[in-house]
Amino acid sequence: MFTVEFEPDASIITTIDESAECEDVEVILGDDALVYIRQFDHDVNAYDMVILTYQQFLDIYAGLNSTEGVFKLQLRRRE
Asked: CB–CB of 62/40 below 8 Å?
């Protein structure tokens, strides 16, 4: 299950582990062209954070359905 929220400066996708084994994971697509992935860690009472570019995020997404190898995505603008 997941939720989608639109904030003035970001879109937030939260994936919820329905088995309750893991904490929710938030993917924050910021207006600053960065992607923030965070998950709350109760042991330290803080979020673990990964910050990457949108290109890196797209690379991860594309890699889910790729064979083994080295790849480079070419982004195209819609007209």
From this structure: no
The reply to whether 69 falls in a domain is: no
Residue 78 lies in a domain: no
The parent domain of residue 31 ranges over 2-63
Only one residue has tokens 């195209």, namely 76
Structurally, the chain folds into a number of domains equal to 1
Question: Would you say 49 and 38 are in contact if contact means Cβ atoms under 8 Å apart?
Answer: yes
Please tell me the distance from the alpha carbon of residue 12 to that of residue 27, in angstroms, as a whole number.
6
Q: Tens digits of per-residue pLDDT, 26-53?
A: 999 999 999 999 999 999 999 999 999 9
Query: To which residue do tokens 């088995």 refer?
Result: 19
Q: What is the pLDDT of residue 40?
A: 97
Position 12, amino acid? I
Pairing of β 2-7 and β 10-15: antiparallel
> Is residue 71 in a domain?
no
